[in-house]
């Protein structure tokens, strides 16, 4: 059985997925989510893991209450139902129409409604709407049923919240209601009929927090050219249907990064919506935007957008890591999805990209004054401390050249370098590494890295200020795409590799002990 904390984390992740992966052609699902949350705080629980039976009449009554104010005329310039805000893009919803008629019959509040002859037909409309629509569609994510909240039993009498779910609704009531209301509001604002009633304020959120659509036009010709006028997703010619898509959706990360754009068909863009793209798309995006055309994109778009391939990579790693943790669906093609899966390795940028980084720019000795004798000399970075403890900050601001150690096999200054060990987390086992030992390391190229399982590797990540931080650990694969980082000294805890870590070198040998 999951711990309460883990279930609560899964609950929040599921609500996030629901609002992204669910289809919301009307506002009923938002109202239902709000109604369930209300009921959970109104009814006591025997324990944190209690199931909760919610009768459908209770939910129908909640819908009537939630929609009561929505049935009031919004515009004084229109008459009748044309003055009402619509709850979907088609005809006005049945519940709103019935409530509007009640209010036109001098019913001024919910209490009067329940005491009047109008309540029975209103309740019947709410029940019919509930059972035919949102109740059994709320938990359809990316075209598939995922009944995390309650089973889809198709009961005409009640639903039963799964064990612990009612407690999650109670724990995160404010968050759920805020998300439901905000999404509800955005849906109403997106309906064309409503925009004529609301006026310019209907675009307020897009105005304040939306992407710069004018600036996106600057990216379009660049992307069209480097993609040979083919849609990034379906690979077919785009003709005149070109749109610029945020590869990591703007709804997930609300900043314009120059390397995060791809050119797509309008249909592909609309169908992808706010989903993360499938892993195959992700790999092509990395190759196209970060490796092959990384510098071109920076040159062409840096006047309009923030261009940093490393940051774009970090954001994408974060987004897919969250998707994996929450069992999210990834968009593959029109109405086609795949399950988010762990990546095969911790992502690292190829050498051609990393040479643009501030870290290890000196790994090519040609960039420094070179020794003139015939002996093999290797670059040694005195300011890089490969931490045998916790991540330690360093930089490549200084480089020296030392004789290559004897007996280490064929060495090359382009692929091997020297650095000091720092700390004592690797000073155990059969091959201890002591504080101050000189380490011979081999630069890892992604295309030639091979399996890293069981090897001691140097790992890099960036600190808050952008400084490089380095750690030495043994790698162990624990599950598909998941890796443990193990210290030789048992006093240090095992760590899990995360998306912000990059394996940049493997330990070849200890030179000085």
UniProtKB/TrEMBL annotation:
SUPFAM superfamilies: LexA/Signal peptidase
A Pfam family it matches: Peptidase_S24
Classification via Gene3D superfamilies: 1.10.30.50, Umud Fragment, subunit A
Coiled coil: none
Residue span, HNH nuclease domain: 218-270
Name of the protein in question: HNH nuclease domain-containing protein
């Amino acid at each position: 059985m999951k711990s309460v904390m883990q279930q609560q984390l899964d609950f929040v992740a599921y609500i996030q997925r629901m609002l992204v992966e669910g289809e919301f052609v009307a506002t009923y699902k938002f109202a239902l989510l709000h109604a369930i949350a209300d009921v959970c705080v109104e009814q006591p629980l025997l324990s944190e893991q209690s199931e909760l039976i919610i009768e459908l009449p209770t939910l129908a009554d909640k819908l009537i209450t939630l929609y009561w104010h929505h049935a009031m005329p919004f515009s004084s310039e229109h008459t009748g139902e044309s003055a009402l805000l619509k709850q979907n893009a088609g005809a006005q919803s049945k519940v709103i129409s019935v409530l509007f008629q009640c209010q036109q019959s001098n019913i001024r509040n919910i209490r009067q409604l329940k005491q009047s002859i109008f309540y029975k037909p209103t309740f019947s409309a709410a029940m019919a709407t509930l059972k035919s629509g949102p109740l059994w569609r709320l938990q359809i994510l990316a075209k598939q049923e995922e009944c995390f909240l309650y089973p889809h039993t198709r009961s005409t009498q009640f639903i039963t919240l799964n064990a612990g779910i009612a407690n999650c609704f109670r724990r995160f009531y404010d968050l759920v209601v805020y998300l439901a209301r905000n999404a509800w509001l955005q849906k109403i604002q997106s309906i064309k009929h409503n925009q004529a009633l609301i006026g310019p304020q209907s675009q307020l959120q897009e105005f304040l927090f939306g992407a710069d659509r004018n600036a996106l036009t600057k990216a379009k010709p660049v992307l069209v050219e480097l993609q040979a006028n083919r849609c990034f997703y379906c690979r077919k010619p785009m003709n005149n249907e070109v749109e610029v898509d945020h590869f990591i959706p703007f709804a997930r990360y609300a900043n314009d990064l120059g390397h995060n754009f791809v050119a797509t068909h309008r249909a592909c863009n609309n169908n992808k919506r706010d989903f993360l793209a499938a892993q195959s798309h992700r790999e092509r995006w990395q190759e196209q935007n970060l490796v092959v055309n990384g510098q071109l994109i920076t040159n062409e778009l840096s006047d309009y957008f923030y261009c940093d391939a490393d940051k774009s990579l970090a954001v994408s790693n974060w987004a897919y890591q969250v998707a994996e943790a929450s069992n999210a669906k990834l968009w593959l093609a029109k109405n086609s999805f795949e399950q988010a899966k762990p990546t095969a390795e911790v992502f690292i940028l190829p050498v051609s990209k990393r040479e643009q980084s501030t870290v290890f720019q000196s790994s090519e000795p040609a960039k420094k004054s070179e020794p003139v004798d015939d002996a093999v000399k290797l670059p040694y970075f005195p300011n890089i401390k490969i931490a045998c403890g916790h991540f330690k900050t360093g930089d490549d601001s200084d480089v020296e050249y030392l004789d290559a150690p004897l007996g280490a096999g064929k060495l090359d200054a382009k692929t091997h370098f020297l650095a000091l060990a720092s700390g004592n987390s690797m000073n155990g086992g059969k091959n201890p590494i002591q504080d101050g030992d000189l380490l011979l390391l081999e630069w890892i190229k992604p295309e030639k890295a091979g399996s890293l399982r069981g090897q001691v590797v140097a790992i890099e990540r960036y600190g808050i200020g952008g400084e490089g931080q380095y750690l030495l650990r043994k790698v162990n694969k624990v599950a598909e795409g998941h890796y443990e980082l193990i210290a030789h000294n048992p006093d240090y805890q095992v760590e899990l590799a995360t998306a912000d870590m990059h394996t940049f070198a493997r330990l070849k040998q200890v030179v000085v002990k």
